[in-house]
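Database export, one record per block. Field names are fixed; values are copied verbatim from the stored entry.
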Amino acid sequence: MADTIFSDLNLAFTAHPVTGALSRKLEREAVRQSVKSLVLTNRGERPFKPDIGCSIRSYLFELWTPMVKQQMEHAVLEVIRNYEPRARIIRLVINDNPDMNSLIVSIAFMIKNDPNPVTLDVILSRVR
């Protein structure tokens, strides 16, 4: 099991420079891309899989309270726990940045068969 390779398509859909085939992300970068995609996906956004996503963008216009922060943390933890079995969350911090009208989601997680933790920061900002 230690020689399992995690591989996903590169969501930038760039071509491999030699073969011309779609490039892919491997190991840590594949899982990191998957976690980020899950956090940024709204529920109902993916055809035929309406339950995937945490709809964290819907909290951007909410009044920042401890209850709202707890709901966001729960949504992020639940979507990663349910749809990304390769990652195990070790730390999740969500901070409000009112001056920039944004949220900063910092996730630290462990990947199966990898002793080093991975950190991911996702910045969500209000457009309007």
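Remark 1: The longest strand covers residues 87-97.
Remark 2: The chain has one domain: 27-125.
End of record.
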